[in-house]
Amino acid sequence: MSSFKEIIDLNNLPQHIAIIMDGNGRWAKEQGYDRIFGHQNGVISVRETTEAAAEIGIKYLTLYAFSTENWSRPQSEVDALMELLIDTIEKETPTLNKNNVRLMAIGDLTRLPGNAGVKLQRCILETSQNDGLALVLALSYSSRWEITNAVKNICKEVIEGKCNIDDINSEMVSNHLTTKSIPDPELMIRTSGEERISNFLLWQIAYTELYFTQTHWPAFRKENFYEAIYEFQQRERRFGK
Ligand code: FPP
Question: pLDDT at position 239, please?
Answer without folding.
Answer: 82
